[in-house]
Amino acid sequence: MKPFVFTRIQYTSGDWDTDQRMPSNILHSLVEYTTIPIEEKEKVVLLSSNDLFKSPFCYLSGHKLVEFSTQEREHFHRYVENGGFVFVDDCNHDIDGLFAKSFEQEMARTFGEKALQKIANTHPIYHAFFDFEGPPTTSFELNGWGDDLVHDYLKAVVIKGRIGVLYSNKDYGCEWDYDFRNKRWLAEDNTKFGVNIINYALNI
Length: 204
Hints:
Elements: E1 7-10, H1 22-33, E2 43-46, E3 57-62, H2 70-81, E4 85-90, H3 98-111, E5 116-118, E6 155-159, E7 162-168, H4 172-175, H5 192-203
Parallel strand pairs: 1-2, 1-3, 3-4, 4-7
Antiparallel strand pairs: 5-6, 6-7
């Protein structure tokens, strides 16, 4: 089995380089809980580059505008249609914010008006490794510049019965953006859902 590479997508609009400690934290959790071999460093790939197609899992995040170029849109569409998985996290945790509005518009352009839909809280992704009764909440949802709502759902673009794009307004990136050595101070490891996401991406 090839080592898992945490691949971050760099896109031309907005700010893509968020939550810089999060990938190593999630990679530490994969080592702690699973037998998935890993590369220790995250990899950044341009959405416009063919390197995108080398990874089964990618992460995309930001606070600002999401507006793909023609080539970026074509690559994103082809990557997902061919079995790739993208976890997209809104750092604004705000369904009326710029990232949320522009990303959802971009998904409508890329996959069709109704492609991005809420997924049921019984979806297999919530049982892909650990068991959850829907998406775990984060400490950021009612904090900062969000919409003062706890979002009790995630959205997804489903391709041929499997999630191709998982989309969160819950700001998991910030929730998991800490040195993994500090995990020992938590009553419950809050990165466990990240293990589910990656396990689903690699095995479904």
